[in-house]
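hey team, just a heads up i'm posting the complex here instead of the shared drive bc the drive is being weird again. everything in one block, sequence lines first with there labels, then the predicted structure for the whole assembly after. its two chains so it's a bit long, scroll down
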Amino acid sequence: MRLRRPELHSLAGAYALNAMTGADRARFERHLARCPACAQEQHSLRETTALLAAAVAVEPPADLVERSVAAAARTRQLPSATAEAGTWWPARRGHRTGLGHRAGRAHRTPVPRGAWQAVPRRLPHALAAALLAVAAASAVIAVTAEHRLGAAQSRDQAIAEVLTAPDAVLVTSRVKAGGTVTVVTSHRDHALVFTAAGLPRLPFGRCYELWLMGPRGDRSAGMLPTPHRGMTSPVTATGLAAGDWIGLTVEPAGGSAHPTSTPILMLNVMA
Amino acid sequence: MAGPAAQRLAGTALEGLLRSVARGDQAAFEAVCARASPAVYGVVRNVVRDPAQAEEVAQEVLLEVWRAAPKFEPGRGSAMAWVTTIAHRRAVDRVRSEQRSAERQRRAAWYPIAYDEVAETVEARLDRERVRRCLGALTSLQRESVTLAFYGGHTFREVAELLGVPEGTVKTRLRDGLIRLRDCLGADR
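-- predicted structure starts here --
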């Protein structure tokens, strides 16, 4: 094995350090299943990575254990019979946990019916092109220095990726306080693009902050830039998870770690 | 804070506790959490960086330990290695799904979390001294590759790009480096 597949064998370190993705990992796991010596080496290297982990141990937040124990009480365990020979640790992601039921976690505001109309539909090409044009124009505005050029380019690339994703869905909604927002989501990429027009002007020192709100808790998706002639240029956010809503709140300039005001918009972007 | 049940179980080895957890023993689970959560939170915190997200991921990890305990096979490695592997995998899943590579590369260089920010545990201080000493015995390329991959959560391809060396070189440095670390730390079983 070792001689026939030297290039695969050299991946043992990368694999033990979880420094591989997708196809690389799948290839190495097939190799592991056929190479008992490699599997043995993996076990010893995993013990080493455990020491790398132990070396950065810190006191966790005070209620971490308590919350985990409470969540466990609501979560069904896997049957031992399903243990697969090849995987010593559980499969990655994609299971239901009791986390979503944690009391008081989701600051979800009931959305009054009729206050907004969510119209999910496939993204028409013309609109995608229009949004890209807005993004490109805003990039030109943003370019004042070399480093900002780099930032704008990577941002526009992120926008283009969402807009051209095969599962891109457009939702447009009126905001009760004034204005309209348009959100394009790609659940495949866990990403979204948010734009707005005519949002109420905010007093000095206040900004709009975008949130992903759902079973994983409330996560900031960034601050909206200052509108230019009423148009808010597109903002991308990643980390969209199943069950997330999009929230928009008014926060002190610089943003908050958690929403500090009632959302002026809650938008359901579920697939 | 560990509850009374967790304190009663404090003398039991983590492997034994996990076996009880596999049978649905919640007190044993609390003891496992009390024992493993500093390393879990520490490794997640290093990779994820953002404290709020780290807390979220750490909770997911502990819940995964509960859920998957029936699948733990003691013959294939220590309980701590099993738990920290889950923690590291979850943490890198989180950063890789959330950050576009461009952004990750901008803040590429691995930097350790400042220790005045978070209270380290006594065990961690001893482990850290050993690990630091053994990391110091590696070549600089081995050391940079291993720390970028583990604490930075980077793939070997990203590490190659960050260090400006061929991917093949990083692959072998990660393996050689980890083997030298293993021998230095005496972690081979």
